[in-house]
TrEMBL record:
It comes from the Bacteria. This is 3'(2'),5'-bisphosphate nucleotidase CysQ. It holds the Pfam family Inositol_P. GO terms for molecular function: 3'(2'),5'-bisphosphate nucleotidase activity. Keywords: Hydrolase. Its EC number is 3.1.3.7. It is an enzyme of class 3 (hydrolase). InterPro entries: Inositol_monophosphatase-like. The keyword Thylakoid does not apply.
Length: 272
Protein backbone atom coordinates (compact mmCIF):
# COMPACT_ATOMS: atom_id res chain seq x y z
CA UNK A 1 0.00 0.00 0.00
CA UNK A 2 1.34 3.46 -0.88
CA UNK A 3 2.21 6.02 1.81
CA UNK A 4 -0.59 8.29 0.51
CA UNK A 5 -3.22 5.59 0.89
CA UNK A 6 -1.97 4.69 4.35
CA UNK A 7 -2.22 8.32 5.48
CA UNK A 8 -5.73 8.66 4.06
CA UNK A 9 -6.89 5.48 5.80
CA UNK A 10 -5.51 6.67 9.14
CA UNK A 11 -7.18 10.07 8.74
CA UNK A 12 -10.52 8.45 7.93
CA UNK A 13 -10.17 6.11 10.89
CA UNK A 14 -9.38 8.99 13.25
CA UNK A 15 -12.32 11.01 11.93
CA UNK A 16 -14.67 8.11 12.66
CA UNK A 17 -13.08 7.68 16.06
CA UNK A 18 -13.63 11.36 16.85
CA UNK A 19 -17.31 11.06 15.98
CA UNK A 20 -17.69 8.14 18.38
CA UNK A 21 -15.71 9.94 21.06
CA UNK A 22 -18.07 12.90 20.79
CA UNK A 23 -21.04 10.59 21.30
CA UNK A 24 -19.37 9.17 24.42
CA UNK A 25 -18.71 12.56 26.05
CA UNK A 26 -22.28 13.65 25.33
CA UNK A 27 -23.62 10.55 27.04
CA UNK A 28 -21.42 11.13 30.09
CA UNK A 29 -22.42 14.79 30.14
CA UNK A 30 -26.11 13.86 30.18
CA UNK A 31 -25.53 11.71 33.27
CA UNK A 32 -23.76 14.57 35.04
CA UNK A 33 -26.45 17.05 34.05
CA UNK A 34 -29.02 14.90 35.84
CA UNK A 35 -26.97 15.36 39.01
CA UNK A 36 -26.65 19.15 38.57
CA UNK A 37 -28.65 21.89 40.26
CA UNK A 38 -28.37 21.83 44.03
CA UNK A 39 -25.28 23.05 45.86
CA UNK A 40 -23.54 20.05 47.41
CA UNK A 41 -22.64 20.87 51.02
CA UNK A 42 -19.46 19.57 52.63
CA UNK A 43 -17.75 20.35 55.92
CA UNK A 44 -14.37 18.65 55.48
CA UNK A 45 -11.82 17.96 52.74
CA UNK A 46 -12.78 14.27 52.95
CA UNK A 47 -16.44 15.05 52.25
CA UNK A 48 -15.42 17.24 49.33
CA UNK A 49 -13.22 14.51 47.85
CA UNK A 50 -16.03 11.96 48.13
CA UNK A 51 -18.43 14.30 46.32
CA UNK A 52 -15.90 14.94 43.56
CA UNK A 53 -15.26 11.20 43.18
CA UNK A 54 -18.98 10.47 42.88
CA UNK A 55 -19.25 12.83 39.93
CA UNK A 56 -16.11 11.39 38.34
CA UNK A 57 -17.37 7.83 38.73
CA UNK A 58 -20.75 8.73 37.23
CA UNK A 59 -19.08 9.90 34.04
CA UNK A 60 -16.34 7.26 34.00
CA UNK A 61 -18.87 4.44 34.19
CA UNK A 62 -20.00 5.62 30.75
CA UNK A 63 -16.73 6.83 29.26
CA UNK A 64 -14.36 4.03 30.18
CA UNK A 65 -16.20 1.10 28.53
CA UNK A 66 -17.11 3.12 25.43
CA UNK A 67 -13.63 4.51 24.83
CA UNK A 68 -12.00 1.18 25.63
CA UNK A 69 -14.16 -0.48 22.97
CA UNK A 70 -13.05 2.15 20.47
CA UNK A 71 -9.33 1.67 21.22
CA UNK A 72 -8.84 -1.55 23.24
CA UNK A 73 -5.04 -1.27 23.24
CA UNK A 74 -4.86 2.36 24.33
CA UNK A 75 -3.71 3.14 27.84
CA UNK A 76 -5.88 5.02 30.29
CA UNK A 77 -4.68 7.95 32.39
CA UNK A 78 -6.16 7.25 35.81
CA UNK A 79 -5.62 10.65 37.41
CA UNK A 80 -6.76 13.77 35.53
CA UNK A 81 -4.44 15.85 37.74
CA UNK A 82 -1.29 14.10 36.49
CA UNK A 83 1.24 15.96 34.38
CA UNK A 84 4.35 15.21 32.35
CA UNK A 85 5.05 12.94 29.41
CA UNK A 86 3.24 9.66 28.79
CA UNK A 87 4.86 6.33 27.86
CA UNK A 88 4.97 5.44 24.14
CA UNK A 89 1.80 4.43 22.34
CA UNK A 90 -1.81 5.58 22.51
CA UNK A 91 -3.46 6.92 25.66
CA UNK A 92 -6.89 8.20 26.56
CA UNK A 93 -6.56 11.37 28.61
CA UNK A 94 -9.98 11.98 30.10
CA UNK A 95 -11.39 14.52 32.52
CA UNK A 96 -14.82 13.09 33.39
CA UNK A 97 -15.92 16.28 35.14
CA UNK A 98 -13.68 19.19 34.14
CA UNK A 99 -14.66 21.94 36.56
CA UNK A 100 -15.99 19.40 39.06
CA UNK A 101 -15.98 21.90 41.97
CA UNK A 102 -18.11 24.25 39.89
CA UNK A 103 -20.61 21.43 39.32
CA UNK A 104 -20.85 20.82 43.07
CA UNK A 105 -21.50 24.52 43.64
CA UNK A 106 -24.23 24.71 40.97
CA UNK A 107 -22.02 26.91 38.79
CA UNK A 108 -22.32 26.40 35.01
CA UNK A 109 -18.64 26.27 34.05
CA UNK A 110 -17.93 22.53 33.71
CA UNK A 111 -17.50 20.00 30.93
CA UNK A 112 -16.61 16.44 29.96
CA UNK A 113 -13.43 15.92 27.93
CA UNK A 114 -11.76 13.01 26.16
CA UNK A 115 -8.51 13.27 24.22
CA UNK A 116 -6.60 10.55 22.38
CA UNK A 117 -2.84 11.03 22.66
CA UNK A 118 -0.54 9.18 20.28
CA UNK A 119 3.20 9.20 20.97
CA UNK A 120 2.69 12.18 23.31
CA UNK A 121 0.83 14.21 20.68
CA UNK A 122 -2.93 14.90 20.99
CA UNK A 123 -4.60 13.44 17.91
CA UNK A 124 -8.25 14.17 18.57
CA UNK A 125 -10.37 15.66 21.29
CA UNK A 126 -14.03 16.10 22.16
CA UNK A 127 -15.27 18.52 24.83
CA UNK A 128 -18.94 18.63 25.73
CA UNK A 129 -20.70 21.35 27.73
CA UNK A 130 -23.87 19.68 28.99
CA UNK A 131 -25.65 22.86 30.12
CA UNK A 132 -25.41 24.52 26.70
CA UNK A 133 -25.43 21.33 24.64
CA UNK A 134 -22.27 22.45 22.80
CA UNK A 135 -19.65 19.97 21.64
CA UNK A 136 -16.20 21.18 20.60
CA UNK A 137 -14.04 18.84 18.55
CA UNK A 138 -10.61 18.91 16.97
CA UNK A 139 -8.70 16.46 14.79
CA UNK A 140 -5.05 16.93 13.89
CA UNK A 141 -4.85 18.44 10.41
CA UNK A 142 -8.63 18.72 10.03
CA UNK A 143 -9.41 21.84 12.06
CA UNK A 144 -11.43 22.65 15.17
CA UNK A 145 -15.21 22.77 15.23
CA UNK A 146 -18.16 23.71 17.40
CA UNK A 147 -21.11 21.46 16.59
CA UNK A 148 -19.67 20.97 13.13
CA UNK A 149 -18.95 24.64 12.39
CA UNK A 150 -15.29 25.66 11.91
CA UNK A 151 -13.57 27.61 14.66
CA UNK A 152 -10.98 30.35 14.14
CA UNK A 153 -9.00 32.34 16.70
CA UNK A 154 -9.36 36.11 16.82
CA UNK A 155 -7.60 38.56 14.53
CA UNK A 156 -6.76 40.92 17.39
CA UNK A 157 -3.25 42.36 17.06
CA UNK A 158 -3.06 44.55 20.17
CA UNK A 159 -2.83 43.12 23.69
CA UNK A 160 -4.24 46.40 24.97
CA UNK A 161 -7.50 45.56 23.18
CA UNK A 162 -7.54 41.93 24.27
CA UNK A 163 -9.55 39.89 26.72
CA UNK A 164 -7.17 37.43 28.37
CA UNK A 165 -7.70 34.69 30.94
CA UNK A 166 -5.93 32.43 33.38
CA UNK A 167 -6.78 29.73 35.91
CA UNK A 168 -5.90 30.13 39.55
CA UNK A 169 -3.35 27.90 41.21
CA UNK A 170 -4.73 24.61 42.47
CA UNK A 171 -5.24 24.03 46.20
CA UNK A 172 -1.97 23.01 47.87
CA UNK A 173 0.05 24.34 44.93
CA UNK A 174 3.70 25.20 45.50
CA UNK A 175 4.13 28.71 46.92
CA UNK A 176 6.43 29.74 44.08
CA UNK A 177 3.75 28.88 41.53
CA UNK A 178 1.07 30.73 43.50
CA UNK A 179 3.20 33.88 43.62
CA UNK A 180 4.00 33.59 39.93
CA UNK A 181 0.28 33.36 39.12
CA UNK A 182 -0.35 36.50 41.19
CA UNK A 183 2.43 38.53 39.57
CA UNK A 184 1.34 37.47 36.08
CA UNK A 185 -2.23 38.63 36.73
CA UNK A 186 -0.88 41.98 37.94
CA UNK A 187 1.22 42.35 34.80
CA UNK A 188 -1.73 41.51 32.55
CA UNK A 189 -3.95 44.00 34.42
CA UNK A 190 -1.57 46.72 33.22
CA UNK A 191 -1.23 45.49 29.62
CA UNK A 192 -4.52 43.82 28.59
CA UNK A 193 -8.04 45.21 28.26
CA UNK A 194 -9.78 42.67 30.54
CA UNK A 195 -8.37 39.85 32.67
CA UNK A 196 -10.58 36.87 33.55
CA UNK A 197 -9.57 34.47 36.34
CA UNK A 198 -11.54 31.27 36.84
CA UNK A 199 -11.47 27.50 36.54
CA UNK A 200 -11.47 25.27 34.59
CA UNK A 201 -8.70 25.92 32.06
CA UNK A 202 -10.41 24.01 29.27
CA UNK A 203 -13.33 26.43 29.05
CA UNK A 204 -10.98 29.39 28.62
CA UNK A 205 -9.19 27.52 25.84
CA UNK A 206 -12.48 26.82 24.09
CA UNK A 207 -13.05 30.56 24.10
CA UNK A 208 -9.61 31.22 22.61
CA UNK A 209 -10.36 28.73 19.82
CA UNK A 210 -13.75 30.38 19.23
CA UNK A 211 -12.22 33.91 19.14
CA UNK A 212 -14.17 35.04 22.21
CA UNK A 213 -10.98 35.78 24.12
CA UNK A 214 -7.51 36.41 22.78
CA UNK A 215 -5.10 34.61 25.11
CA UNK A 216 -4.93 32.16 28.00
CA UNK A 217 -1.98 31.35 30.22
CA UNK A 218 -1.32 29.01 33.13
CA UNK A 219 1.55 27.93 35.34
CA UNK A 220 1.95 24.23 36.16
CA UNK A 221 -1.24 22.40 35.16
CA UNK A 222 -2.22 18.86 34.30
CA UNK A 223 -2.39 17.07 30.95
CA UNK A 224 -6.18 16.77 31.13
CA UNK A 225 -6.45 20.54 31.74
CA UNK A 226 -4.42 21.58 28.73
CA UNK A 227 -4.28 18.91 26.01
CA UNK A 228 -7.89 19.29 24.75
CA UNK A 229 -7.65 23.06 24.54
CA UNK A 230 -4.13 22.99 23.10
CA UNK A 231 -5.35 20.91 20.17
CA UNK A 232 -8.49 23.02 19.70
CA UNK A 233 -6.53 26.29 19.70
CA UNK A 234 -3.83 24.97 17.38
CA UNK A 235 -6.36 23.62 14.90
CA UNK A 236 -8.25 26.94 15.07
CA UNK A 237 -5.10 28.77 13.98
CA UNK A 238 -3.79 29.84 17.37
CA UNK A 239 -0.27 29.75 18.73
CA UNK A 240 0.86 27.52 21.62
CA UNK A 241 4.03 27.92 23.68
CA UNK A 242 5.21 28.14 27.25
CA UNK A 243 5.05 31.53 28.95
CA UNK A 244 8.56 32.38 27.71
CA UNK A 245 7.65 31.64 24.10
CA UNK A 246 9.41 28.27 23.88
CA UNK A 247 7.69 25.19 22.38
CA UNK A 248 5.19 23.73 24.83
CA UNK A 249 5.17 20.07 25.89
CA UNK A 250 3.29 18.35 28.73
CA UNK A 251 6.52 18.62 30.74
CA UNK A 252 6.61 22.42 30.46
CA UNK A 253 6.21 24.49 33.63
CA UNK A 254 3.94 27.04 31.95
CA UNK A 255 1.47 27.30 29.09
CA UNK A 256 0.30 30.05 26.76
CA UNK A 257 -2.33 29.87 24.02
CA UNK A 258 -3.00 33.01 22.03
CA UNK A 259 -4.16 34.51 18.79
CA UNK A 260 -1.02 34.95 16.65
CA UNK A 261 -1.39 38.73 16.65
CA UNK A 262 -1.00 39.05 20.43
CA UNK A 263 1.22 36.07 21.24
CA UNK A 264 4.51 37.97 21.27
CA UNK A 265 3.07 40.75 23.44
CA UNK A 266 1.64 38.19 25.86
CA UNK A 267 5.05 36.50 26.16
CA UNK A 268 6.68 39.87 26.85
CA UNK A 269 4.15 40.66 29.59
CA UNK A 270 4.45 37.27 31.26
CA UNK A 271 8.26 37.39 31.12
CA UNK A 272 8.54 40.65 33.07
Amino acid sequence: MSETLQTTDVAASDADLLAQTAIAVRAAGSALRERFGEVVRYQTREELMRALATNDDTALDILRPRLTRLRPDAGWVEDELDGGALPPGEWWVVDPAEGNVNHLHALPEWAVTATLVRENQPVLTAVHLPLTGETYTALTGAGAHLDGQPLHVSQTADLGLSIVATSQARPDEDEKVVRRVGSSITAMLFDALVVRTAVPATLHLLNVAASRIDAFWQFAGARADLLPGALLVTEAGGQISDAEGRPWTPQSESFLAAAPGVHAEAVATLSR
